[in-house]
Write a structure and sequence with these properties.
Helices cover 41% and strands 16% of the residues. It is of the alpha/beta class. Helix 1 packs across helix 7, helix 2 runs parallel beside helix 3 and helix 3 packs parallel to helix 5. The chain has a 7-stranded parallel beta sheet with strand order 3-2-1-4-5-6-7, sandwiched between helices.
């Protein structure tokens, strides 16, 4: 019997890159996975993976997803807040407000809406695992990346707050802070900026999506019982504390 047999998971940003790796890892361990993504289509349906078109910045769509999950699957055990957008590469004084608002909406407001909608179902069953995909940029602050770094820093704060609010209710809320992961999103930023962040990694390479998926799988599993509101680094040695 697989560890996640019978579990139902939602992975936002679940189509492509890191999201696909996480979806596949959870499904391989027996979970039914809803791959919620703004680009999801019926073509993405495979095995235990159910695509669901979702804009994480829309409260009505998020509430509709949770309602759909309860009606169709009868439970919700795992939420992985992974939806994201490529960061900016300009200084604060050249950053347009539209870029700022987009990054905050997708990578901070989106996870907030998902937590707000999903927690009642989890709390009713007194079990749940929420994993927020943040970033080393949220801990250190990457220059020329104010919107992205700020959104990810806010996500770490949200993780700590919600983790404490539900600490005695059977629901664990943790965050992962990747450094650089091999992903199509890397091509959104400039080559110079990509090399800058790679230069900060003692291992000298980007992480692999399947390596990150292993860490997320662990945090989403029943094996974790005494860690909540915590931050788990995935940085190839960049983070040493």
């Amino acid at each position: 019997m697989s560890e996640l047999d019978g579990h139902v998971a939602i992975v936002t940003g679940g189509i492509g890159g890191i999201g696909t790796a996480i979806v596949e890892r959870l499904a391989a361990d027996g979970a039914t996975v809803i791959a919620a993504d703004i680009a999801a289509t019926s073509r993405d349906r495979t095995g235990q993976v159910y695509p669901y078109a979702l804009d994480v910045t829309d409260p009505d769509q998020v509430d509709g997803l949770i309602e759909h999950c309860g009606t169709t699957h009868g439970r919700l055990d795992i939420v992985i807040n992974n939806a994201g957008v490529g960061g900016s590469t300009e200084p604060v004084w050249e950053t347009e407000i539209a870029r700022w608002e987009r990054d905050i909406a997708v990578m901070l407001t989106g996870p907030f809406l998902m937590c707000r909608a999903a927690l009642p179902m989890m709390l009713e069953r007194e079990y749940g695992r929420i994993v927020n995909i943040a970033s080393m940029a949220g801990k250190e602050g990457n220059p020329n990346s104010a919107p992205y770094s700020s959104a990810k820093a806010g996500l770490l704060g949200l993780t700590k707050v919600v983790g404490k609010e539900v600490a005695t209710r059977g629901v664990l809320v943790n965050a992962v802070t990747p450094g650089v992961v091999e992903s199509p999103m890397n091509h959104v930023v400039s080559e110079e900026f990509h090399h800058y962040v790679l230069s900060k990694i003692p291992m000298g390479r980007a992480g692999k999506p399947e390596e990150l998926a292993e860490l997320v799988h662990f945090l989403a599993s029943p094996r974790v019982g005494f860690s909540t509101g915590a931050v788990f680094d995935f940085s190839g040695g960049r983070a040493t504390y």
